[in-house]
C-alpha cells in the first residue's frame, strides 16, 4: 500500500471509506437476496467513493458469458448485457487479482479477444477501473467503476478499500454458487433415490434396463443413452436398451465388438469423450459419458449417456455427472442382479417358462383372488404330440429344440405380465389366464395350437419337422371351485384332445373342437 | 424516531426548498430523490435541500444525493445544501459534492447562492 501523508483530509477520507466498507460488509453478509444485495452495495460504493457509475457483471462458467447483474448511475443501460469471455482472458483475470485500469487492460495481449469481441457493449459500461472478482481460483465476474464526481480518480487508498469490497463480493458469489450447487446436488440425489425406487420395484430385466437408460438421459441432461450388455465369457457386447436416438439403433448397427468400451469392462475406468472421432460412427454423437455396470466386481454391462445439453448446445459431461452416473449404475446393478436371481429361481432354463414351484404358488394366489372377486380364471394344459418320437428319432438335442419352439410360441402368444405360462414337467406346459372366461381361454388355446402347427422347425438332417400340440381347457367357476379341481379338469380335457386324434383343443365338459384357423 | 423520514417542499420564487427530517438512508434518500425528480420533471431547476433536521446520513443516502446533483446538472439547474451538521458538511466536501452544489449555513444563504 503506497504511503500517503497523514493529513486530516486523508484521515477523514479514510474514515468515510472504512465506514462505507462496514456498511457494505454488513449488507453482503446479511442479505440473502444476492442480486438485490449487489445493487445496494453498488449504491454504497457510489455514496462512499463518489463514483458516478458502477456495474457488476457476473460470469457463468457453463456459457462462458458475463452478464450484467447490477448497475447504478446507468439508467440507460440495456436490461440484458451479455459479454463473451474467452478462456484465455478469464485466466488472465484470475492471475491479476487486483484493480486494473482500462489502459492496462488494453496492454494485456490476453485481454485483446475479450475487449475486441465486446467492444460495443463495453462502451456502455463503466471502464475506468475494473476489479476482478476471484475467490479460491474461481472467477465470478468484474466490478466496473467509472471516475468520481467531476472526473476525480480514486486514490491508492480508495483502490485498496474497493479491493476489499471486491473480495467480499466474490466471497459472497462463491458462497452463493456453493449453495446453488448444494441445492442442485440435493435435487439430483432426490431424483436418484426416486429412480432407484422405481428400478427396485421391478424384477423384469427388460423393464429395468429400459427405465434405467431413459432416466439416466433425463437425470444428466443428455440427449441419448444406451445400455450394453457385456458377456465376460465371450467378451462380446450386445445392445440391450437405447433411448433418444432419432434413428433405430439396432444390435446389428451397433455390433458385438466395441473396443472403445474395453477399458471400462476390464478395469474400473469411467469413459468420457468430448470428441465425436473417439466414438463409434453408429452412435452419431459428439460427447459421451460411460460407466461400467458391475455385479460382484465383474462388469456385466456399460451404461452410457450421450450429447450433454449444456444450455448452449452440446457440451462435455462434468465430474459431477461422473459421480451421478456411477451412483446410478451401482443402484441399477443391484436391480439387474435381483432380476437375474429372480429369473434363476423362477424360470426354467431351457424353455424360459416359469418353473412348476413358482407356478403353483401363483396358481394358489390367483385362485384365491378369482374366488374372492368372482372373476373367471382359466387354465390351459398343453402337451406336445408324440414328443417321445422326436427324442427317439432325432436325439435329445432335437427334443430340446421342439420344447424351445413350443415354449417360445406360448410366450409370444400369452399376455405379458398377466398370463402365467409354465413348464409343468417333461413336455407338458400350462398357461394360467386370469380374468379370462371359457370362451376367451379357448380362443387363446386355439391361437397357440395354430401358431405351433404353422411354425416350421428345421430337423438335424435338413428336413422340416412338424410339431403339434393338444390342449385342454378348464375355467373357474364354470367347471371347478378349487385350484386342484381346475388342474384335474384341464388334464381331463387334454386327455380328450389326445383321444380325439391330437392337434386340437378341448374345453372341459365339451366335445373336442375341430381344428380351426383363427 | 430515526426510522421515520419526512420531506416537505416549500416554494420560494423559482426555487424549491426541500426540508428533510430524519435519517437519510436508502428510504430517506429515495424520498428525497422522488421529490427532486418530480420537481425537475415539473420544470423546477433550482433546488435547496435543507437538512437541519437530518443529522445522520449513510452511503446510500449520499449516492442518491449524487444522483439528484447529476439530474439537476443535466437540466442546467443548480442545487444548494443548508443546515448540514459539521460532519455531513465535511463528508460532502471530501466526497466532491461541494464542487457541484453550494453548501451554506442557512436557507436564505442557500437560496441566495442559486440566484
What does this structure look like?
The complex is a heterodimer of chains A (518) and B (115). Chain A has 518 residues and is α+β, with helices and mostly antiparallel strands. Chain A is built from 16 helices and 19 strands. In chain A, strands 3-2-1-6-5-4 form a six-stranded antiparallel β-sheet, with helices on both faces. In chain A, strands 7, 8, 9, 10, 11 and 12 form a six-stranded antiparallel β-sheet that branches. In chain A, strand 7 and strand 8 form a beta hairpin. In chain A, helix 2 (34-49) runs antiparallel to helix 7, helix 8 (205-219) packs antiparallel against helix 11 and helix 14 packs across helix 15. Chain B is of the alpha/beta class. Chain B has a single domain (6-114), classed as STAS domain (Transcription Regulator spoIIAA). In chain B, strands 1-2-3-4-5 form a five-stranded mixed β-sheet, with helices on both faces. In chain B, strand 3, helix 2 (59-74) and strand 4 (78-82) form a beta-alpha-beta unit. The longest helix of chain B has 16 residues, at 26-41. Chains A and B meet through helix 1 and helix 2 of A and helix 2 and helix 3 of B.
Strand and helix map with partners:
The complex is a heterodimer of chains A (518) and B (115).
Chain A lengths: L7 H23 L3 H16 L4 E7 L4 E8 L9 E3 L2 H9 L4 E2 H6 L4 H6 L1 H5 L5 E7 L2 E8 L10 H45 L4 H15 L2 E10 L4 E8 L7 H4 L7 H5 L4 E3 L14 E8 L2 E12 L4 E2 L3 H28 L9 H18 L3 E8 L2 H8 L1 H18 L6 E6 L2 E7 L3 H16 L3 E2 L5 E2 L3 E8 L6 H17 L5 E3 L11
Parallel strand pairs in A: 18-19
Antiparallel strand pairs in A: 1-2, 1-6, 2-3, 4-5, 5-6, 7-8, 7-11, 9-10, 10-11, 11-12, 13-15, 13-18, 14-15, 16-17
Chain B lengths: L5 E7 L2 E7 L4 H16 L4 E8 L5 H16 L3 E5 L3 H10 L6 E3 L2 H8 L1
Parallel strand pairs in B: 2-3, 3-4, 4-5
Antiparallel strand pairs in B: 1-2
Helix pairs in contact in B: 1-2
Amino acid at each position: 500500500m503506497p504511503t500517503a501523508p497523514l493529513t486530516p483530509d486523508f484521515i477523514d477520507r479514510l474514515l468515510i471509506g472504512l465506514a462505507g466498507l462496514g456498511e457494505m460488509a454488513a449488507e453482503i453478509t446479511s442479505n440473502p437476496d444476492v442480486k438485490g444485495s449487489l445493487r445496494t452495495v453498488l449504491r454504497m460504493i457510489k455514496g462512499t467513493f463518489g463514483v458516478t457509475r458502477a456495474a457488476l457483471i457476473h460470469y457463468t462458467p457453463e456459457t462462458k458469458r458475463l452478464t450484467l447483474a447490477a448497475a447504478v448511475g446507468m439508467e440507460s443501460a440495456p436490461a440484458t448485457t451479455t459479454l463473451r469471455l474467452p478462456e484465455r482472458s478469464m485466466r488472465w483475470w484470475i492471475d491479476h487479482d487486483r484493480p486494473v485500469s482500462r489502459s492496462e487492460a488494453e496492454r494485456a495481449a490476453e485481454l485483446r479477444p475479450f475487449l475486441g469481441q465486446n467492444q460495443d457493449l463495453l462502451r456502455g459500461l463503466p471502464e475506468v477501473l475494473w476489479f476482478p472478482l476471484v475467490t479460491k481460483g474461481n472467477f465470478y465476474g468484474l466490478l466496473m467503476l467509472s471516475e468520481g464526481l467531476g472526473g476525480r480518480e480514486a486514490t491508492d487508498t480508495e483502490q485498496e478499500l474497493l479491493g476489499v469490497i471486491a473480495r467480499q463480493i466474490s466471497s459472497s458469489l462463491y458462497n452463493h454458487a456453493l449453495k446453488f450447487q448444494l441445492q442442485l446436488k440435493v435435487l439430483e440425489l432426490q431424483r436418484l433415490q426416486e429412480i432407484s425406487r422405481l428400478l427396485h420395484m421391478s424384477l423384469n430385466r427388460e423393464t429395468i434396463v429400459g427405465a434405467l437408460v431413459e432416466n439416466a438421459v433425463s437425470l444428466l441432461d443428455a440427449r441419448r443413452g444406451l445400455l450394453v450388455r457385456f458377456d465376460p465369457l465371450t467378451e462380446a457386447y450386445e445392445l440391450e436398451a437405447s433411448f433418444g436416438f432419432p434413428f433405430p439403433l439396432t444390435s446389428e448397427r451397433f455390433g458385438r465388438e466395441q473396443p472403445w468400451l474395453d477399458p471400462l469392462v476390464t478395469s474400473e475406468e469411467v469413459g468420457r469423450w468430448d470428441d465425436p472421432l473417439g466414438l463409434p460412427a453408429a452412435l452419431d454423437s459428439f460427447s459421451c459419458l460411460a460407466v461400467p455396470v458391475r455385479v460382484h466386481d465383474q462388469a456385466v454391462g456399460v451404461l452410457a449417456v450421450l450429447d450433454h445439453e449444456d444450455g448452449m448446445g452440446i457440451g462435455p459431461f462434468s465430474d459431477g455427472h461422473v459421480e451421478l452416473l456411477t451412483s446410478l449404475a451401482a443402484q441399477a446393478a443391484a436391480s439387474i442382479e435381483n432380476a437375474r436371481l429372480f429369473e434363476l429361481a423362477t424360470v426354467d432354463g431351457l424353455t424360459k417358462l416359469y418353473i412348476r414351484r413358482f407356478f403353483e404358488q401363483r396358481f394358489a394366489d390367483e385362485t384365491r383372488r378369482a374366488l374372492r372377486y368372482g372373476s373367471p380364471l382359466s387354465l390351459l394344459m398343453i402337451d406336445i404330440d408324440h414328443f417321445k418320437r422326436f427324442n427317439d428319432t432325432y436325439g435329445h438335442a432335437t427334443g430340446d429344440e421342439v420344447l424351445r419352439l413350443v415354449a417360445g410360441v406360448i410366450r409370444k402368444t400369452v399376455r405379458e405380465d398377466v398370463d402365467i405360462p409354465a413348464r409343468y414337467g417333461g413336455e407338458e406346459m400350462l398357461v394360467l389366464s386370469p380374468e379370462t372366461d371359457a370362451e376367451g381361454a379357448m380362443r387363446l388355446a386355439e391361437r397357440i395350437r395354430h401358431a405351433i402347427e404353422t411354425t416350421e422347425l428345421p430337423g438335424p438332417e435338413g428336413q422340416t419337422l412338424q410339431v403339434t400340440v393338444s390342449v385342454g381347457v378348464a375355467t373357474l367357476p364354470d367347471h371347478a371351485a378349487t385350484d386342484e379341481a381346475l388342474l384335474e379338469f384341464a388334464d381331463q380335457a387334454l386327455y380328450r384332445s389326445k383321444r380325439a386324434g391330437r392337434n386340437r383343443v378341448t374345453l372341459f365338459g365339451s366335445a373336442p373342437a375341430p381344428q380351426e384357423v383363427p | 424516531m430515526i426510522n421515520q423520514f419526512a420531506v416537505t417542499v416549500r416554494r420560494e420564487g423559482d426555487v424549491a426548498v426541500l426540508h428533510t427530517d430524519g435519517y437519510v438512508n436508502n428510504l430517506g434518500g429515495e424520498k428525497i430523490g422522488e421529490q427532486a425528480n418530480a420537481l425537475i420533471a415539473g420544470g423546477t431547476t433550482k433546488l435547496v435541500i435543507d437538512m437541519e433536521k437530518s443529522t445522520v446520513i449513510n452511503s446510500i443516502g449520499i449516492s442518491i444525493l449524487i444522483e439528484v446533483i447529476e439530474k439537476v446538472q443535466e437540466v442546467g439547474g443548480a442545487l444548494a445544501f443548508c443546515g448540514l451538521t459539521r460532519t455531513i458538511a465535511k463528508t460532502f466536501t471530501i466526497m466532491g459534492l461541494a464542487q457541484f452544489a453550494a453548501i451554506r449555513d442557512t436557507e436564505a444563504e442557500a437560496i441566495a447562492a442559486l440566484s
